[in-house]
């Protein structure tokens, strides 16, 4: 574990955009993930490792590695623990949104549904779950994608606008289901 963290530190301090630092970063995060959450001695490092998995997954997507990204996002989620929605809400939201994107790209219907439902159930605002809901919509309408995007763009309400839906009776925010 400490070996992986020291490699991550070295890779992150290296110049960005160099193949060597990216390779070192992927090696480091892979080393950490092989150990898994049970090998982490300091609980404060769990969210750091989750964030590193998010960063590595995003880098992987930029290199068209959706399968690797999907696994990295899943690892990131596994490091957050059971209280992720109260202790690491923003990071949880980012990871669940990212894993939904990767699942959509990889045609993983069950994973997409599971992760979108989890995020929708815990989202504090409509904006927090909008992207993942669009991934589900894209997945469902996959073969009609060009016409679906055209139809969404012609709606009188901007689907991508910043909106917050608040449940008046309970004082909590919830996302609307797609």
Descriptive overview:
This protein is mainly α and 178 residues long. The N and C termini lie far apart (41 Å). Residues 160-178 have low confidence and may be disordered. It folds into 2 domains: 1-35, no CATH class; 36-173, Serine Threonine Protein Phosphatase 5, Tetratricopeptide repeat (Alpha Horseshoe). The protein contains 9 helices and 2 strands. A hairpin with a 4-residue loop joins strand 1 and strand 2. The longest helix has 18 residues, at 45-62. The radius of gyration is 18 Å and the shape is globular. Strands 1-2 form a two-stranded antiparallel ribbon. Helix 3 runs antiparallel to helix 4, helix 6 (89-105) packs parallel to helix 8 and helix 7 packs antiparallel against helix 8 (126-140).
Task: Sum this structure up briefly.
The protein is built from nine helices and two strands. It has 178 residues and is mainly α.
Which tags fit this structure?
178 residues, Serine Threonine Protein Phosphatase 5, Tetratricopeptide repeat, 2 domains, two-stranded antiparallel ribbon, 67% helix, globular, disordered C terminus
Which helices and strands occur, and which strands form pairs?
Elements lengths: L1 H12 L5 H17 L9 H18 L3 H13 L5 H4 L1 H17 L3 H14 L3 H15 L4 H9 L12 E2 L4 E2 L5
Antiparallel strand pairs: 1-2
Helix pairs in contact: 1-2, 2-3, 3-4, 3-6, 4-6, 6-7, 6-8, 7-8
N-to-C span: 41 Å
**What share of residues are in beta strands?**
under 5%
Helix content: 55-70%
**Biggest β-sheet strands, sense, barrel:** 2 strands, antiparallel
Structural class: mainly alpha
Number of strands: 2
Order of helices and strands: HHHHHHHHHEE
Average pLDDT, all residues: 77
